[in-house]
Specification:
The complex is a heterotrimer of chains A (339), B (123) and C (549). Chain A has 339 residues and is mostly helical. Helix content of chain A is 69%, strand content 1%. Chain A is built from eleven helices and one strand. In chain A, helix 6 runs antiparallel to helix 8. The mean pLDDT of chain A is 87. With 123 residues, chain B is mainly alpha-helical. Classes of the chains: A mainly alpha (339), B mainly alpha (123), C mainly alpha (549). Chains in contact: A-B, A-C, B-C.
């Protein structure tokens, strides 16, 4: 392989598709979708002014905050650190997509799920802490401390539920490189359609996959701090938690980062559990439509939960995650390596 | 069409890290290029927002590091911490010895069992 | 080796046995110097010089062993191994010693600033420090279990006194007393173990023991319990494991650790976290993978499986207890102590991979993860202790209370950055090297079909975030009235920058060639054949020499 071709592919994947540009666009669309559907559930209009049915509202918000608004400094703040923190998060989330089949440049290694976990789960979380502490404030510290408390149960849940399909595939298809995001998303559709396996193990596999999908959706809900788990930002109670003092361009990037987190995690569910465009190809119309449909369905479930619940207290939230997501996903993981 | 590269994990990690570094640089440059700072640094603008209080309140009552994760520590993992603090890490040497001798006892039982098996059955 | 070949005996370079002797000689030369020289700076520079020589020598030893491709045996005083003391240096312990020398060198350079500006320090401190290093190097290089006992004794005596060096501080004295009492018990147990080994096998040489344990041989004529090597080994292994799990602070033998770390100077705490505990882990790995490793007779193999299982369970418990306790600490150094408990747990989890597999391909990756994690943990802990020491000294703080330290990272930019980098490195975030050791722990447990253990490591990492975030607040927090920076000492800056660079440099080195070196080193730990062969060749070569004369 020529080095120039590789660099070309890398630049394309990193900056255009599925990199920074495309991911930002999809994330802003995601934000619109969540806002609009939650608003409709609550009998509100939702974004309506910019673009058809308000589709471009998040873009307008982003560019207004970025280009027009100014940011306010405070005596102890360091805007550069905050932006670096956001950039770490955005960078990690963007690069994660290179591990998925959606990218033109696909990077694969055995056990790269660990790299996926660190890039998608741990680094964005750490970058959230860095951003927040760059603008110190008692409310921010309280918000961060709550975010960390939630993370104790959220992240193991997410990891356990992601390991379930990986583990089943590593055991069933031992010729593939084990625990790789790419090969899991290619092979996972075979688990759903149940080729070459007997009925009993097929049903068990389906149950395990269903449990781990539910667990991972709950975990995502809490990871991106949507409604029942919006305790760290806790509007009104903690002013705005860790986002209390953000303004202007810093806030624009922070919101983009937050939307990207939702997008990448939902995409991860779509690929790792649901097989992406399966049963079609990426480059066919049906494939793209299937991919989009799966994405919208998962996103709609996320918005549904966000619209249906009020905020939990933090200890309730942690107990609920342990009860409905952590324990089921760990049991699923144990069963997946017993069968 | 797509370029699929199978790498070893170390290379993959270093490659992704350098990609992230490129993106960090890019975003920081964008920020530096477009961000506008509030021009006038009035006294109002440079203080923290603490519900309208002056920040000198922080010297009176500083949030202590014990207050972090209070809910988690005191409510969710209450049993874990009760056990850890009240029976494991009491600071009393005699309590320590109880746990240390448990491990010692386990090893000792193991040794004795093996010896008995060997002496009786030749194993 | 052909019959009649005596080359192995005749050309033995003296450098292999030189480091511990040189350190002990240097340590006992200091009281003599103290008659003429009063300046504490001199003793510090002397210690640096000795450590530097040790570093260079250990590098030469490592290169020699690497070139040789098989272990090197050095008989002390020219006595052949089963009779005399022998050092047996393979790739694993030569690499480990090189790393220890490197960390020790950094610590004593830092100490050149930290301790010499402390009025409570006098020259005996350096005697003890050199004694500690001598003990550590002796433990690492030795191929003889009784010499190991002596060297652990040297190491322990130094640590007992170093812990209680601040005689006016009652916490120091209390911690020292607790550690000394329990440590003395532990050491006597190991002494009993050597007696049992000797009674059963009739030898004290590690390679000889390894050979006999695989051939059910014994030099003693008894057929009683002592003549039966299975029973004797079971008893002796118990008396070996308990002391060294105590020295390496594995749960539940970790209780001394928080008291000790929070009452000694950061330099000594960095020594503890940097290499004394790691040395004890090395000894356990040597016992469980070389002496009683693969290919051992089936009865002992069963015993070994049970022991590895117990170590795995304790490793997981240690990791959990450490992670939970980190969250509720008020004192930065106590927090770091529990972080050490946590990481020692990870290291033992990696060490216990032999429970699930006997395949060398998997074992060597597991042991590589163990070695890499030891290295990463030492670097991270040294960074954190030394930077916290700098901040405490710079702001004239006596305690390392987190509320007092909160926000003070801004008064010292380099030390403040070092705290952040050290914490991220210990959490195991890529691209810091801490990621890779955890990565290989996950990988090795996923590859033997144990995703639950891999998941437990993730769980523990998530819980430990609570503790590390408290450390991040030292740098990122804001305390009104502490905006002024103090001047950091040159030594502190140099050492901290080196340590920070190491966290990234190891990642890059892994990419270049370090990975294969580590793999070879861990393979040499499992490869009992060449370990035994070196010893047997040496003996036959010696016998040839005797016949020839």
């Amino acid at each position: 392989m020529e080095i120039a071709t590789m660099i070309g592919y890398a630049l394309l994947s990193l900056f255009i598709f599925p990199g920074l540009a495309a991911l930002s666009a999809i994330s802003l669309f995601t934000e619109w979708f969540v806002r609009k559907s939650v608003a409709r559930m609550q009998n509100r209009m939702g974004p309506a002014y910019v673009g058809p049915i308000g589709l471009l509202q998040p873009f307008a918000d982003f560019f207004k905050l970025l280009l027009v608004k100014r940011y306010v400094e405070q005596r102890y703040s360091s805007p550069l650190l905050a932006v670096m923190g956001v950039a770490i998060g955005i960078g990690a989330l963007t690069v994660t997509l290179l591990l998925f089949p959606i990218s033109p440049l696909r990077l694969i290694a055995s056990y790269d799920v660990i790299i996926f976990i660190y890039l998608t789960i741990l680094w964005p979380f750490l970058s959230l802490i860095i951003i927040s502490l760059a603008w110190p404030n008692p409310f921010v510290i309280a918000g961060v401390s709550r975010a960390i408390a939630l993370a104790i149960v959220t992240e193991p849940t997410l990891v356990a539920s992601i390991l379930v399909p990986m583990n089943i595939i590593a055991r069933k298809y031992s010729q593939l490189p084990p625990y790789s995001v790419y090969y899991t998303s290619i092979a996972v559709s075979r688990l759903w359609t149940g080729i070459n396996i007997n009925m009993g193990s097929y049903i068990i596999t389906l149950i395990l996959l269903a449990i781990s999908i539910i667990a991972s959706i709950i975990a995502i809900q809490s990871k991106v701090m949507l409604k029942p788990f919006d305790i760290p930002e806790a509007e009104q109670e903690l002013i705005a938690g860790f986002a209390t003092e953000f303004s202007g361009p810093v806030y624009a990037f922070f919101r983009l980062f937050h939307d990207m987190e939702i997008t990448v995690l939902v995409l991860a569910i779509v690929y790792i559990f649901l097989g992406g465009p399966a049963p079609f190809n990426h480059l066919s119309v049906e494939g793209i439509l299937t991919l989009l449909a799966k994405y919208i369905v998962v996103l709609f479930i996320v918005s549904l939960i966000r619209g249906a619940f009020g905020r939990f207290r933090i200890d309730q939230a942690i107990n609920k995650i342990i009860k409905y997501a952590l324990i089921p996903s760990v049991i699923a993981l144990i069963i997946s390596f017993v069968i | 069409m797509a370029l699929t590269i199978i790498l070893n994990p170390i290379t993959l990690m270093l490659l992704t890290s350098s990609f992230i570094a490129i993106l960090i640089a890019l975003i920081t440059i964008i920020f530096k290029a477009v961000a506008k700072k509030e021009g006038s640094m009035s006294e109002d603008a440079i203080v923290m927002y603490i519900g309208g209080e002056h920040e000198s309140i922080l010297t009176l009552k500083f949030p202590s590091s014990d207050a972090l994760y209070w809910a988690v520590l005191k409510r969710v993992f209450r049993n874990v911490y009760n056990y850890l603090i009240n029976s494991l890490h009491t600071g009393n040497v005699l309590d320590w010895l109880r746990y240390m001798s448990m491990w010692y006892g386990f090893l000792m039982t193991l040794a004795i069992m093996v010896s008995i098996l060997v002496v009786l059955y030749g194993w | 080796m052909t019959r009649g070949d005596t080359s192995m005996v005749q050309y033995i370079s003296p450098i292999y046995g030189f480091i511990p002797l040189m350190m002990i000689a240097a340590a006992f030369a200091l009281p003599l110097f103290s008659f003429f020289i009063r300046r504490i700076k001199f003793f510090s520079v002397f210690t640096i010089a000795v450590t530097l020589i040790a570093f260079i020598l250990s590098a030469i030893i490592f290169v020699n062993v690497y070139r040789e491709g098989k272990p090197i045996l050095y008989p002390f005083g020219g006595w052949p191994p089963p009779i005399g003391i022998a050092y047996e240096i393979d790739l694993f312990n030569s690499l480990f010693a090189l790393f220890v020398a490197f960390i020790a060198l950094l610590i004593v350079i830092y100490d050149n600033w930290y301790s010499t500006s402390d009025s409570r320090i006098h020259y005996t401190y350096y005697v003890l420090l050199l004694g500690l290093l001598a003990g550590v190097f002796g433990c690492i290089y030795t191929g003889d279990i009784f010499n190991l006992f002596v060297m652990v004794e040297v190491l322990s005596l130094s640590t007992y006194s170093l812990i209680s060096f601040y005689r006016s501080n009652r916490y120091s004295l209390e911690a020292g007393l607790k550690y000394t009492l329990l440590g003395a018990v532990a050491l006597s147990l190991y002494f009993v173990a050597t007696i049992v080994y000797y009674a059963a096998y009739g030898t004290l040489n590690m390679a000889d023991l390894a050979y006999m344990a695989r051939n059910k041989a014994s030099l003693t004529p008894f057929s009683s319990i002592f003549g039966n090597i299975v029973a004797a080994t079971a008893v002796a292994l118990v008396f070996t494991l308990w002391p060294f799990t105590f020295k390496s602070a594995l749960f539940p033998n970790h209780f001394w650790l928080p008291d000790v770390y929070s009452s000694v100077s950061p330099v000594i705490a960095a020594c503890f976290a940097g290499f004394t505990e790691a040395t004890a882990i090395y000894i356990i790995a040597r016992f469980l993978y070389t002496i009683f490793g693969l290919g051992i007779i089936p009865e002992l193999a069963k015993l070994r499986t049970v022991v590895l299982g117990a170590l795995l369970v304790l490793g997981i418990l240690a990791a959990l207890v450490g992670a939970f306790m980190m969250a509720i600490q008020r004192d930065a150094r106590r927090l770091l102590a529990y972080s050490t408990v946590n990481h020692i747990g990870f290291i033992y989890i990696a060490l216990s991979i032999g429970l699930f597999t006997n395949s060398i391909d998997v074992l060597r990756i597991g042991l590589m993860a163990m070695l890499l994690h030891i290295i990463n943990h030492s670097i991270g802990k040294a960074t954190l202790f030394l930077s916290i020491g700098s901040i405490m000294r710079g702001n004239n703080l006596d305690s390392s209370d987190l509320n007092a330290l909160y926000g003070l990272g801004k008064t010292a930019p380099i030390a403040g950055t070092a705290i952040v980098i050290g914490a991220l490195h210990l959490i195991g975030l890529p691209p810091f090297a801490g990621f890779f050791s955890k990565y290989y722990i996950y990988q090795v447990y996923l590859s033997v079909g144990q995703p639950i253990i891999a998941w437990l490591v993730v769980l523990v990492t998530a819980i430990s975030l609570m503790g590390y975030a408290k450390l991040l607040l030292i740098t990122f927090g804001t305390k009104p009235g502490y905006e002024k920076r103090f001047r950091e000492a040159l030594q502190s800056k140099a050492v901290l920058v080196t340590l920070m660079a190491m966290t990234i440099a190891i990642s890059i080195a892994l990419y270049i060639d370090f990975y294969s070196v580590l793999i070879k080193a861990s393979e040499s730990l499992v490869n009992y054949n060449s370990y035994i062969a070196t010893f047997r060749d040496f003996v036959s070569s010696y016998l040839n020499l005797l016949r020839g004369s």
